[in-house]
Amino acid sequence: MPVRHLLAAAAAAFLGGIGLAAPAAAHVSVESAAVDAYTLTAARFWATSAALLGLAGAVIGWRALARSIRRIGNGGRKGAIVALVSGLIAVVGGALNLAVADGGPGTGNGVVGGALALVVGLIAAVLGRLALTRSRRTG
Asked: Is the pTM of this model over 0.85?
């Protein structure tokens, strides 16, 4: 069930005592049919956030791996941990988004962003793990 429908049901339950439930529910059902390629839905926002978190983790993991290879400072241990954690969070966020999506690409469910978050999160987690392993060996 999309978040928009959950919010509409909550608003209908809240406004039911006032007598405004039917117009609010009708407005949401008409609004949900107008999703185009540029509409930012809650699912697309969630998927985009998870993908950006995974991308940041991949960049941090790459830098930490480079530091551990060159043996600078503590070998990028903190960056490796940040990359590993952010990559795992992105993987979970992308997988959850793909699991609850009830349509394909272009339906407003964030399927493309969820898949991107899954892939980039896996890359970040692998880079973080490699950097962490190297920093332990060199330290």
From this structure: no
Alpha-carbon distance of 78 to 138, in angstroms, equals 14
With both helix axes pointing from N to C terminus, report the angle between 111-138 and 42-70 in degrees, rounded to the nearest 10. Answer: 20
Which tens digit of pLDDT belongs to each residue from 54-74? 999 999 999 888 887 776 656
Position 113: which residue type?
A: G
Taking the C-alpha atoms of residue 83 and residue 55, their distance in angstroms, rounded to an integer, is: 9
Tell me the one-letter amino acid at 106: G
CA distance 83 to 28: 39
Kindly report the backbone phi and psi dihedral angles of residue 72, in degrees, each rounded to the nearest multiple of 5, phi listed first.
-95, 130
Q: Is there a contact between 76 and 66 (Cβ–Cβ < 8 Å)?
A: yes
Tokens of 118: 């899954």
